[in-house]
Amino acid sequence: MHPPVSRHAHPGAARRPFRLLIVEDEKRLALSLAKGLMAEGYAVDVVHDGLEGLQRAGEGGYDLLVLDIMLPGMNGYRVCGALRAAGHEMPVLMLTAKDGEYDEAEGLDTGADDYLTKPFSYVVLVARVKALLRRRGRSAEPVLRVGSLAVDQGARRVERDGDGVVLTAKEFAVLEQLALRAGEVVSKAEILEHVWDFAYEGDVNIIEVYVSALRRKLGAGHIVTVRGAGYRLVADG
């Protein structure tokens, strides 16, 4: 029998705060994170089981999901993959005790937007949460057009030849940086600086994972690799 969902609402939080769901089976960690995020002004729900997390997240209404990978019932990879397959687009920040590029790539391939390895600094986690929410809630901005691609910065939407392309928040952010400088070479370091913020401590080569995902979704010819320099977004390859 699984414990009931725990809801935490900060009494001084702003009206209609962002709603976050934490799915983490380490109860002390989960409740500590909830308490801290509550103090930041968020409304936070906590569950400790993958199946229950999938059910709660699938009900909608959440602005962001903090998702552990090693969970009872259903692991985080499967939870994230099931949510994306069902069309849920809320940002997903994955937590794991594992440490390795393969695990990170696997998590991102299921549709996660960011990845944090335990143990981590609470300050870093808050920075990641704020960055993901900021990108999701950005006000209306111009539509960037590069050949058959239309990158709507305000709606966080991408179209190719008029057809919508579903991207994760982090995939969109990488594409946005390339589209803002279409035709120019953008280095991995520049993408990291603008997309991952100051808190990222991982391997710069994670950019390759996102570029690969974008090529699968947009067509390989749109993003050109300039060896030793970075990437360039072109009209059509």
From TrEMBL:
Keywords: DNA-binding, Phosphoprotein, Transcription, Transcription regulation, Two-component regulatory system
Ranges for domain Response regulatory: 19-133
Chain positions with 4-aspartylphosphate modification: D68
GO biological process: regulation of DNA-templated transcription
Record-annotated DNA-binding residue ranges: 141-235
GO cellular component, one term: cytosol
One of the record's GO molecular function terms: transcription cis-regulatory region binding
Stretches assigned to the OmpR/PhoB-type domain: 141-235
InterPro entries: CheY-like_superfamily, OmpR/PhoB-type_DNA-bd, Sig_transdc_resp-reg_C-effctor, Sig_transdc_resp-reg_receiver, WalR-like, WH-like_DNA-bd_sf
UniProt-recorded name of the protein: Response regulator transcription factor
Organism encoding this protein: Streptomyces sioyaensis
